[in-house]
Amino acid sequence: MMHVDQATAKVDLESLVDKYEKISNSNFDNEDKIKSLNNSINADTKNKSSKAVDRSSKQNEIASLHIKINENEKELREIEEKIKKEVHIPKPLFDKLEKARQILHESLDKIPWSGLGIDHFEKAITISINAASPESYREIIEELVGKDIPVIIKQGMPNPFLTCANRTTDCSDLIGGLAIGDDNDTWDCTLGFAVMRDGDKGYLTAGHCFEKGELVYQPDSQAGVIGIVLESIFNESCDCAFINMTSNDNWSENVYYKLNREKPIEAKGTPVPGYMITISGALTDVLDYGLVVDTNFSCVEYDIWGNPKATVEGLYTTKFTSIGPGDSGAPVFRSNSIDKTLYGIVSCMEQLDDDDVVFVPWSTIQAQLGVS
């Protein structure tokens, strides 16, 4: 299979994303200026402390800023289309890749994979294999998923913050992005990131994963318990839960992300539209190039009979990423050479396109759970 040079293509894609962010930030600055100018005009009018020429000058500046915002919005849409053209996977192919990924996910006994995802740029399965010769597993992979499924095989390597084989095994140091489960002997969701609550150390995950009082294991009940859910919210306010550690010995503020990024993520914050995000899910591994596009999305979750369970409001949506069952609760963050910030955790997957992801923003989590 022929591939575009990924290193070169990635630089081009990142430049588009950086440009998108700069334009978005410019619009936010311009909107702040408009608000400030309007407040100034209102204050001057109320106090009769300015001349008509001064007010006219401020109004002209506001009009110019509106024109610039409109120009920026047009350019943002053009950049979105360029990015989407590069990374959007047509649904027929996406369905094939998703089915193949699930088959490989269930074949850990045959292939010692440490990461499994979908590369949106190359439109292929990516699998990291912990073996001296990972390429030697290609024949097994082709037998499992077929020769027509594009698969990129990578060398699996120990994560700098991971003291176990991979995120679906029993890990002695707990870091965000690991598989977690309940009493049913299977891992169901992803460990979020480390937080403090009323002096207690713990971790976040999605509220729909566990109820209050449940024990949480890593990766499943065959391993040791990592903590108890002290609070779980799954309603219109939040899809978030706090897991209190049974022992603080394994508590770590690190997050499972790309191996060549050796510094921990350093801050927590809430992004704005245009920010690029990264997701580290137990099923899909690390996914880059998500763009925040909506900050007020409502998502309905359904039970197995198709009845609505809860409608969560105030969620954030991203384009150009994809997740699967088991990624709920996964850390959403930014990790480039300048800014390493945790943004939230993955929430529901209903009512979305194949390349969209919904997450609960940090500001909501902090307010609803009282964590820091």
Short recap of the structure:
This protein is an alpha+beta fold and 372 residues long. The chain has 4 domains: 6-86; 91-155, GMP Synthetase, Chain A, domain 3; 174-253, Beta Barrel (Thrombin, subunit H); 259-369, Thrombin, subunit H. 29% of the residues lie in helices and 32% in strands.
What is the secondary structure topology, with strand pairs?
Elements: H1 6-47, H2 52-87, H3 91-105, E1 113-119, E2 124-129, H4 138-145, E3 151-155, E4 174-176, E5 179-181, E6 187-190, E7 194-197, E8 200-205, E9 215-217, E10 225-234, E11 239-245, E12 251-255, E13 267-268, E14 276-281, E15 285-302, E16 308-319, E17 331-335, E18 340-346, E19 356-361, H5 362-369
Parallel strand pairs: 2-3, 4-12, 13-18
Antiparallel strand pairs: 1-2, 5-6, 7-8, 8-11, 9-10, 10-11, 14-15, 14-17, 15-16, 16-19, 17-18, 18-19
Helix pairs in contact: 1-2
Offer a few descriptive terms.
single chain, 372 residues, alpha+beta, GMP Synthetase, Chain A, domain 3, Thrombin, subunit H, 4 domains, 6-stranded antiparallel beta barrel, 5-stranded antiparallel beta sheet, 5 helices, disordered N terminus
Query: Largest sheet, order of strands side by side?
Result: 14-15-16-19-18-17
Specify Rg, calculated over alpha carbons. 23 Å
The second-level CATH architecture of the largest domain is Beta Barrel
* Overall 3D shape: globular
**Helix and strand succession?**
HHHEEHEEEEEEEEEEEEEEEEEH
Q: What is the count of distinct domains?
A: 4
CATH topology of the largest domain: Thrombin, subunit H
Quickly give the structural class.
alpha+beta
